[in-house]
Amino acid sequence: GDGYAQSRDWRVHRRGMLHQAVYNTGELGRAYNAGGTVQPSSPSMEWPPNSSMVLDRVNYPGQHNSFGSGIWIAATRPGGRVYTFCGATSNTNGEPVPVVGVYSTPLELRKIENFPVLADGELNSAYDPDEAEEIIVSRWDTPVGIRVTRTSRAWSFPGYDSFIIYEYEFENVTGDTLSDVFITFANTFAPSMFGYQRNHGDWSEGNFRG
Asked: The pTM is what?
């Protein structure tokens, strides 16, 4: 059914070795920024996890590997061409710009835990071995008229603990025919925030130019 607008919010995948903040706006990791920092509560492709530290009296946020990611969608509606940037967007100076209320209207955000063993050490009788251990469902509307539902999944098992799988559903909720639809999965990979800060004193888009 139809959802009701929410404020911008996020949940975090922490079950495996790869930690990632997932937003109800389409953003992943953090609001895109060509530099800056990462808040402890919103890891941006952090691997290994819990990697923040103080070294030689300098605070390092950790081993984050993304400036912030998201989804771009474009389509032609009866009134003309429409574009939406649900994350991975900035102004001309590489600084974050608002996504919520401009490109995204958040509708749903929930985190589901499916652990084989409970926190008290007891076996979880409701555990589903055919589903991920950690699931985050986020859903939002866009000015294009496409509603996006993203289901992301993470595991802790050896060999399965260093990736997150994202499943997307795109639904036309306008009642109009949308033509020339383009969907871009916009990722801004920036390996080793800690390494660049340690060796260059900075982790920014300029460091990765040829």
From this structure: 0.93
The answer to whether 8 touches 25, Cβ cutoff 8 Å, is yes
> For residues 29 and 172, what is the distance between their CA atoms, to the nearest angstrom?
26
Q: Where does the chain show beta strands of DSSP type E?
A: 10-13, 20-23, 53-55, 58-60, 70-77, 80-86, 105-113, 134-141, 146-154, 164-172, 179-186
Q: Half-sphere exposure of residue 144, counting CA atoms within 13 Å on the CB side?
A: 28
Of 56, 84, 61, 60, the C-alpha closest to 72 is: 84
Q: How far is residue 92's CA from residue 75's CA, in Å, rounded to a whole number?
A: 24
C-alpha 12: how far from its chain's center? 9
Which residues pair with residue 75 across a beta bridge?
Answer: 82
Residues 194 and 47: their CA atoms lie apart, in Å, by: 11
**C-alpha closest to that of 38 among 75, 77, 78, 68:** 68
Q: What sign does the dihedral 39-41-44-48 (CA atoms) show?
A: positive
CA distance 109 to 21: 12
Contact in structure between 131 and 152 (CB atoms under 8 Å): no
DSSP string, 6-31: ----EEEE-SSSSBEEEETTS-BSSS
Tell me: the pLDDT tens digits for 116-140?
Answer: 999 999 999 999 999 999 999 999 9
Give the integer Cα–Cα distance in Å for 102 and 3.
18
